[in-house]
Amino acid sequence: MMVIDNQKHEYLSAQRLLIQIRLPEGHWAGDLTRQLPHAVLRVEEHMPLSKGMGTAKTLINGPNMDQCLDLLDNHKGIDEVSIYSANDTMLDLNLTIKRGGGGFLRALSKATVVPKTPFEVRDGWVEWEFSTDQEHARTLIGALKVGDIPHRILSFGHEQPTRLLTPRQREVFDLAVLEGYYDSPRRITLTSLAEKLSVSKSTVCELIHIIEHRIVNEFSDSIRRRSPSE
Q: Which residues of the chain fall below pLDDT 50?
């Protein structure tokens, strides 16, 4: 069992920093999305490699994916492009990034902070979320200012996680699953579900619609990644 000596350790208050940063010229993701401003580049996973290189699992959505692929193939910061799936409006790929090709900015290294994944890049701007304390956040902001890197602080402070479903919606969802509403074939009708919940059929129908809408919106990106159109 590990014993923590409270007299030797300072407990810091972790907070959520959400910031947009303009990626500099030469950064592969910044260059790509500036040349294709309608593309949305989403980095799902990233990892540093030896000799200053890196790798990034990336999903790109938008028009002109043939042009997008050409830009990646010819970018001086990209060493290798591995394609998992592709069509006219989507690329699912893994990139090996050369040293200096545009991994994380020097300001992040100075502040010793790492953004959460996934994150998105649009038109040269990346939106990064950090879980950090005030001292490291100040170091990051200071380093961005010294480096003259454009940035916008969207929020900073304690923030409760957003609920996907309200307690009542969760109750309806749990009962619907338990009673087999989503089974095929269904084991319970909306009328019977409404009776068990002591509400009208129209009320439970509306609740189910809201629940399904929120779940679909929350997991739509994952559904698209795991269900290619071709």
A: 1-4
- Distance, CA of 27 to CA of 35 (rounded, Å): 12
Closest Cα to residue 41, out of 221, 162, 214?
A: 221
pLDDT tens profile 159-180: 555 678 888 889 999 999 999 9
- Whole-angstrom distance, CA of residue 90 vs CA of residue 41: 10
pLDDT at 95: 96
Beta strands in 29-89 (DSSP E): 40-48, 54-61, 78-87
Q: With beta carbons less than 8 A apart as the criterion, state whether 20 and 151 touch.
A: yes
Torsions phi, psi for 158 (to 5 deg): -70, 135
Segments making up each domain of the chain, as ranges = 15-157, 167-220
- What predicted TM-score, i.e. pTM, was given to this entire model? 0.65
**Contact (CB, 8 A) for 191 and 201:** yes
Amino acid identity at 177: V
Quote the Cα angle for 185-186-190, to 5°: 150
User: How does pLDDT run across 202-215, given as a tens digit for each residue?
Assistant: 889 988 988 998 88
Structural contact between residues 54 and 97, judged by C-beta atoms closer than 8 angstroms:
yes
CATH of domain 167-220: 1.10.10
Distance CA 102, CA 80 (A): 14
CB atoms within 10 A of CB 173: 20
